[in-house]
Amino acid sequence: MAAGVSQSTVSIVLAGKWNGRVSARTAQAVREAAERLGYRPNLAARNLRLGQTRTVLFVVPTLTSPFSAPHEAIDGVLASSMASDALTDLVVSPLPSRDHAMVPAGMRERVHDHGGEGGIPLVMLDSDPGGVAPTVNVDVADGMRSLVEHLAGLGHRRFWHLAADVDAWTFRTRGRALAGAVAELPDATLARRNAPITVDGARDATGAWLREAGRATALLCDDDVMAAGAYKAARDAGLDIPGDLSITGFDDILLAEALEPELTTVRLPAEALGERAMSALLEILDGSRPPGVSLPGDLVVRASTAPPGS
């Protein structure tokens, strides 16, 4: 051996269990030899020897969503679920022991039941903070309120909300925050219509709205992709954005800057979400109970919003 010690001594030192078993001088010699040789622990072999793995399953609502795509949150192997009961059962059932862990994003609240005392180590992303598992969320309510405040400051009082047709905590929270913010404005009105989180679905829903009487002056969309569909519907109707209709999105994906005019939206800290979730999960695996976290989003004002009739 390069350090002049046995294999078992090397294992003890590199596992961090040397204190009281070998001298500090020997431990330092082993570490220096490992660094010179470029040694890295073989985790697969370690797991085989210990008879356990520590697998983290990261579950996102959909791999087709630009915000929840791998490069936006966690770079690794992802499982995808639209949060149905059947898929929730499928995700949870293969993880019977605490040698595994799970980070579901935007799944049904009952997944929280698996993160209690003695359950699967679990951190919920973009989920109801009232469950038994710790959550790492974006303050979507504050983000939606900031959009209403921005539009109200421009003089808007007639609002439409193009809401995501998904029964998830994040979208329910956005809707409640929007309605509450509009209710605080004098003489303001709000109408809501649901649509799929697709360009075509949002285009159809907005187009139907625009063919009705009493058009709003500002349209708030639950998602930037939905805002792109609203753009198409407005153009189909011969409307100018933002002169005839101000439009906002949510997420600030790359599409927001590709639209013309560029989209006013709320930027969500996707990478920070992933980092905080993994930090919280490691705390749980070490026996701690981390508190829930709510990260702020940022209002990004671009050219899709202006005073009414400008």
What does this structure look like?
This protein is α/β, with parallel strands linked by helices. The chain folds into three domains: about 5-40, no CATH class; about 55-140 and about 270-295, 3-Layer(aba) Sandwich (Rossmann fold); about 140-270, 3-Layer(aba) Sandwich (Rossmann fold), CATH 3.40.50.2300. About 35% of the residues lie in helices and about 15% in strands. It is built from ten helices and twelve strands. It has helices at about 5-15, 25-35, 45-50, 85-90, 140-155, 170-185, 200-210, 225-235, 255-260, 270-285; strands spanning about 55-60, 80, 100-105, 125, 135-140, 160-165, 190-195, 220, 245-250, 265, 295, 300. The strands form four sheets. It has a four-stranded parallel beta sheet, sandwiched between helices. The chain has a three-stranded parallel beta sheet with strand order 2-1-3, with helices on one face. α5 (about 140-155) packs parallel to α6 and α7 (about 200-210) crosses α8. The longest helix has 16 residues, at about 270-285. It starts with 6 loop residues before the first helix and ends in a 10-residue tail after the last strand. The model is unreliable at about 70-90 and about 90-100 (pLDDT under 50).
For the record, the count of structural domains works out to 3
Taking pLDDT < 50 over at least 5 consecutive residues as the criterion, the unreliable ranges are 69-88, 90-99
Q: Calculate Rg over CA atoms.
A: 25 Å
CATH topology type of the largest domain: Rossmann fold
CATH architecture of the largest domain: 3-Layer(aba) Sandwich
Q: How many β-strand stretches?
A: 12
Just give the CATH class of the largest domain.
Answer: Alpha Beta
Reported for the largest beta sheet, the result is: 4 strands, parallel
**Cα distance spanning the termini:** 78 Å
CATH superfamily heading of the largest domain: Response regulator
- Structural class, from secondary structure content? alpha/beta
Give the ordered list of helices and strands. HHHEEHEEEHEHEHEHEHEHEE
What percent of the residues sit in helical stretches (DSSP H or I)?
25-40%
| Relative strand content | 15-25%
Number of helices: 10
Widest β-sheet, arrangement of strands: 7-6-8-9
| Overall pLDDT confidence | 80
Name the shape in a single word. Answer: elongated
